[in-house]
Amino acid sequence: MAISPELLEILRCPKCKSKVKLKTDQSGLKCENPECALVYPIRDEIPVMLVEEATAEK
Fold first, then answer.
1. Closest of 50, 6, 14 to residue 42, by C-alpha
2. DSSP string for 18-29
């Protein structure tokens, strides 16, 4: 089961409050703000929306 579009619509980056989008490989949620660009992992089909768990991706 993938992340629902309704959930994606309400989730925001905890660091900068921008929208997030699902990565093409569905391994995480990427912040749409190019200055932030953190990627939050998805583990067991649950997004881990913690800044400490995020990785930077440009």
1. 50
2. -BEEE-TTSSEE
Q: Which of 7, 19, 13 is nearest to 51 (CA)?
A: 13
> Which residue in this structure is represented by tokens 């703000």?
33
pTM: 0.91
Closest CA to 54 of 9, 45, 37, 33: 37
10 token code pair: 């309400």
The reply to whether CATH 3.40.50.2300 applies to domain 5-56 is: no
pLDDT of 57: 85
For 23-57, the DSSP string reads -TTSSEEEES-TTT-EEEEEETTEE---GGG-EE-
Nearest to 20 by CA among 33, 35, 4: 33
